[in-house]
Amino acid sequence: MSKGVFTTKVEPDYDDLPEERYHFPRTYLRQVEAVVGDWIVYYEPRRTSGRANSRGGRQAYFATARVTRIERDPDREDHFFAYVADFLEFDHPVPFREGTHYYERALRRPDGGTSKGMFGRAVRVMSELEYDLVLKAGFATTLFETAASTVTAVPAGEARGGLSEADQTPFERPIVERVVRRPFRDAAFAVAVKSAYGNTCAMTGIRIINGGGRAEVQAAHIRPVASGGSDSVRNGLALSGTVHWMFDRGLVSIDDDLTILTAEGHLPPTVTRLFNEDNRLIVPSRDDQRPNPKHLRYHRKTIFKG
């Protein structure tokens, strides 16, 4: 098995939904088969769509996922779907090149320039070391915060290098092992969602940052993880603590047109007056970070009490 890179645009040419599937032609079948059962990173190119003049893509790695299987596309000859699990977006995108360093060595020409030929391959294989370095860069904030939270005071004589053996475990454990653990995933999801919403509550427009630089807003899953929800930003909302509590209990929800819905008879008028003046959800500027209508429908049908 090998690690890999899947390239997908903001407006994909194919039927991609990164947190669930990657659509590709037979050209890349061998490369995708090589990563089944292993991990890949998603890369966003400069072009945002199939239009030749489209620009604005981040030219960066932005998420990781584990490839579980390949299935033929029943509607398009010689095309396939790679299905994924454990999708997790980085807490910040990682550019393919930083200074003279290329995260994928194959993208660097002998003269130091960028290989356009390699960049033209939408699916690429990468080494374990390259994958590890991309993840460490992409989850730098989450790694720091989760490691800091494990550091506790230990009695004199029991510390080694300032940390107990238990405290050192997060630093020694391979990062891919941490990516599948719920505490790490919750932390990374929170960073990604808060960043997408500018640390602002999507329902009230309230943005509070404390003296330590931390935002009051919380990251809420629209479809709960326990019910099959993903850790994609498209399955998340930035909500203040009280609104988060109401959303999880079905007292408020969101319509397909982003109108805020309230469960009649369950909330006093003093609470509803907190919502945005136009009674609509504030959403990220990027289309690929906005709530997936499928998740909103699940919340209305399964959780909302309206």
Automatic annotation (TrEMBL):
Pfam families: HNH_2 (PF13391). GO terms for molecular function: endonuclease activity. InterPro entries: HNH_nuc. Keywords: Endonuclease, Hydrolase, Nuclease. Residues 201-255 form the HNH nuclease domain. This is Restriction endonuclease. It comes from Thalassobaculum fulvum.
